[in-house]
Design brief:
With about 200 residues, the chain is α/β, with parallel strands linked by helices. It has helices at about 15-20, 35-55, 75-80, 85-95, 115-120, 130-135, 140-145, 155-165, 175-180, 185-200, and strands spanning about 10, 25-30, 60-65, 70, 150, 170, 175. Helix 3 (about 75-80) packs across helix 7 (about 140-145), helix 4 crosses helix 7 (about 140-145) and helix 8 packs parallel to helix 10 (about 185-200). The radius of gyration is 19 Å and the shape is globular.
Length: about 200
């Protein structure tokens, strides 16, 4: 890196005031950011204010995110995708920090209220029977509501636009629908072109 250290981009959990004073910006997950869009707005504002208070240029901070999406214009196809075991597993593991948080959205976490993958996921101790039974209990509605930005091109563009308007600079979009069904490659590619065109204005 020559005379300069590499860029340090921090994830939520670290106070935004610390990010603004010392780091080069924030990397978040738009679906999981604490407090959702309103929490994101608040954190970006606090981070930038802290940078300015420390004598730094807030415009030099990088705000980036990784939206995890399941995108299709056909609602029936979206439901089919959200009913796939792989997406149920990802939702069960990463949608919320604790199982108890599922209740806020009307769902029960199949591995209990205290489950949190960062603390509880130990691959060497996983019982396949327990995990398979838990996956089967994850409804597709939970996948759509908790796990991913799910919807048509227009719906996802509208959701992500709110984050862009709040200060998001870069997006690294990951299409989990294509991940579980490679036959959607052509449709997915066309949808991504449409999505990017909408987001870039």
């Amino acid at each position: 890196y020559g005379a300069k250290p590499p860029k340090i981009i921090c994830a939520p959990g670290l106070p935004p005031e610390i990010m603004g004073r010392y780091s080069d910006g924030m990397l978040t997950n738009t679906k999981r950011h604490p407090g959702g869009l309103e929490g994101f707005k608040k954190d970006v504002k606090a981070m930038r204010a802290a940078a300015e208070a420390a004598g730094r240029n807030p415009d030099d901070l990088i705000v980036t995110a990784c939206p995890q999406i399941v995108m299709h214009d056909d609602p029936a196809e979206l439901r089919r995708l959200c009913d796939q075991r792989a997406l149920k597993f990802v939702t069960m593991q990463t949608a919320k920090e604790r199982g108890s948080m599922w209740k806020e959205f009307g769902f029960e976490h199949p591995l209990g209220e205290e489950y949190g993958y960062a603390r509880k996921l130990k691959p060497e101790q996983i019982d396949p029977e327990v995990i398979n039974a838990a996956i089967a209990k994850v409804p597709p509605e939970a996948v759509a509501k908790l796990g991913f930005h799910t919807g048509s091109v227009d719906q996802i563009a509208d959701e992500l636009q709110g984050f862009i308007d709040a200060g998001l600079d870069y997006l690294g979009i990951v299409d989990y629908g294509l991940w579980v069904d490679h036959s959607l490659a052509k449709v997915s590619a066309e949808n991504h072109k449409r999505l990017i065109a909408k987001l870039q204005g």
